[in-house]
Amino acid sequence: MMDRRNKGLNRREQRALRLFVLVVVVVSLLFLLFMPGRGLLPYQRLKKEVRELVRENKALQQRNVELAGEIERLKHDDAYLEDLARKKYGMLKRNEEVYELKTSPSGTK
Hints:
Helix content is 72%, strand content 0%. It has four helices and no strands. The chain is rod-shaped.
C-alpha cells in the first residue's frame, strides 16, 4: 500500500481527472459565451449596435450641415428664396400670369 501512494494516479483515475478538467473547461467557456448581459454574444451584439449608431450619427451630422446651409441660403439668397417660392408654392410676381399648356393623351389635336 505504501508503494501505491507514492506511485501516483492509476489509469482510471487519470482518465476521470482528464474528463473532469474537460467538463470544467467546457462549462467555463459556455458560461463566458452565454453569460446574461456580459458574455461574448451580448458583447458582439452591442459592438454591432454601436457601429450602426455611429453610422447613423454621421449621416445625421451630414444632414445637419446640409440643413444649416439651406437655412443660410433662405436667410441671405433672395434669388434662391424666390425660386423656391415659385417651384414649391406656385407663387408669382406681381403682374405675372401662368399659362398651362396640356397636350391630349392620344397625341391628336
